[in-house]
Amino acid sequence: MQKVGILGGGQLGRMLLQAAANYPVITYVLENDPHCPAAHLCHHFVQGDIRDYDTVYHFGKQVDTVTIEIESVNVDALERLEAEGVKVYPKPSALRIIKNKVQQKLFYKDKEIPTAPFVILENREALRAHLGELPAVQKIGEGGYDGRGVHILHGPEDLEQGFDAPSVLEKLIPIKKELSVIVATNGHGENAIYPATEMVFHPELNLLDYQLCPADIPRETLWKAEAMAMMVVKGLASPGIFAVELFVDARGDVWVNETAPRVHNSGHHTIEAAYSSQFDMLWRLMLGYPLGNPEIRQPSALLNVVGAEGFEGDARYEGLDDILKMANTFVHLYGKKTTKPGRKMGHITLIGKDRQELVYQAGVIKKLFRVIA
Amino acid sequence: MQKVGILGGGQLGRMLLQAAANYPVITYVLENDPHCPAAHLCHHFVQGDIRDYDTVYHFGKQVDTVTIEIESVNVDALERLEAEGVKVYPKPSALRIIKNKVQQKLFYKDKEIPTAPFVILENREALRAHLGELPAVQKIGEGGYDGRGVHILHGPEDLEQGFDAPSVLEKLIPIKKELSVIVATNGHGENAIYPATEMVFHPELNLLDYQLCPADIPRETLWKAEAMAMMVVKGLASPGIFAVELFVDARGDVWVNETAPRVHNSGHHTIEAAYSSQFDMLWRLMLGYPLGNPEIRQPSALLNVVGAEGFEGDARYEGLDDILKMANTFVHLYGKKTTKPGRKMGHITLIGKDRQELVYQAGVIKKLFRVIA
User: Fold this and answer.
1) What distance in Å separates the CA atoms of residue A273 and residue B157, rounded to the nearest whole number?
2) pLDDT in tens, B244-288
3) B172 known ligand binder
4) Of B247, B265, B248, B34, which Cα lies nearest the Cα of B146?
5) pLDDT, tens only, B59-101
6) Per-domain residue ranges for chain B?
7) Which residue in chain A is spatially nearest to B13 when comparing CA positions?
8) Inter-residue contact A74 to A12 (CB < 8 Å)
9) What is the CATH number of domain B117-171?
10) Which CATH architecture describes the domain B175-372?
11) Given an 8 Å threshold on Cβ–Cβ distance, is A332 in contact with B289?
């Protein structure tokens, strides 16, 4: 039986391991926290730091294949493992490009993939020369994750808040829609493209409210989005699964925002909504099976379950019974013991025939349900 | 977080634990074989004999709730655990009735639930007085499982093959269809009935070929089957999930064959075909959540993947790539290292709009796919 190791033991690892149990495979997880969401769902849990060279190298030497569930891993160790014959998904060369947002932006530019105009800044001081370009988005090169390391600088008065590290300063695109296109590629020319997902943001809070799949976009926009996602994946030249986040502007132009070289939050609905979920798909790639079917069985909405503001401690799920009584909901709680504001604690998928019904029900769930302590 | 223990670590435990990872729960498994399909998917694996009183009792004392994935467990220990406040699904009283096929038959008779006419035999010698009733089905009282402990005695010449133990001798019903109705009940008057599943047998080999859901039966037959399944479940007076197997005869009469007080092979299609799978449903019951929605999203067929005749050893899956390429298949392999003839190694679910297409495709899969060594 093949041995596959996952770097990181969060909810993505947890869902990967749920899907792994459909196949003959021996699973390993490397993660510092022995109580992480994935720790108890693998054959072999190894406690250790995914950012440490020796730890990752020795972990990888035990297995046939390594994958990641988070980008902040030791890429040097993965490169050595790859050189020594371990299969790595995604390839370390692709991970290195994506992991650093400066490199990622330069990659899009190099491959002529439409992305918001930008300048590279070495440090906070370098920002002074670009104050005229504000408001703009600043993204730190290394270490950003899950909303951290990205902010808007509104004007010269925000100079002191600028990151004092290599970063990207990016023109604000007048966004009409945010999309995600997930692509699986086996490295032998075969690809599977999931239907585009649309991110719906709260009009006032500017936070992701819920996702809808398929996205409500004209066919031409979809074609552009898919073509651009494929350009990214071909440019990265690595087998694996990739979530390409895109903006659609008021004119209908499409821009690549960012890419994740792994299973992604924007694909969680595929567990119930698609024939082959993003997690199933990655196992197929890693185990050398044919690609799965990315088509969706039914339209879906997805809400993230995050810790409510003002609550920190042992998690309680207010309104859970109401949600579980709904005929078309699928609740995924990640088993995290403690909540804090904004922490991802789970997600809820709705499936249905009708977009309007899904949007309405997503609103109901948001009112009924919250994670408190 | 609640602690739930499972007695047995086979494929049913494996699929239960896949579903458990959607909820906050600490899981325990008791099983002799540390390499069993479920061993690596729980928080705490305990190696031990599910038939041993002390082992089961001490295992159960660690948790809030105990369930089973096989009937051959120590019921005395479960009774003591129940008396000491541990929740047990199903109740030991129900398990005691079902576990012994003599008791199970007497239960149906007592509750006036239609079942094939029968006599109880104390031993092989007692068979002599009933040779005139052959051909008939003989079922051993204790210890039968998965086809073992059941056979047909064709005539007096089969006397020596009769079980020399307490058994049921049952009239052969002229079976037109075999059905399974799965019912979940929470013990507070709420029930969820899954759509009936139809077992399709090979016309020559008389082995289960595949299952179809929903069953192709007249509405009146479905009503009878559901009513009888509910009679069984009410009679057992226990919360839990129950698979009631039924015969339909040529006249359209419905007879209860057997009941399983747990998740069951005839419900595996519910993972992809229903809103709430049988595994999800049992977690909802055990964790005190509302019942799930047993309705099906799409019609389905299910094939068991069993070890091919003539092969014993490390399992290999011939034709697996062909199956994985099909747009509507869901492959579940249970991760068992070795195969032998007839061993359950996995199952394949197909979903589709059309019964005829599903039947055709099930036939194709049977030709393409086998487990060899």
Assistant:
1) 57
2) 999 999 999 999 999 999 999 999 999 999 999 999 999 999 999
3) yes
4) B265
5) 999 999 999 999 999 999 999 999 999 999 999 999 999 999 9
6) 3-89, 117-171, 175-372
7) A21
8) no
9) 3.30.1490.20
10) 2-Layer Sandwich (3.30)
11) no
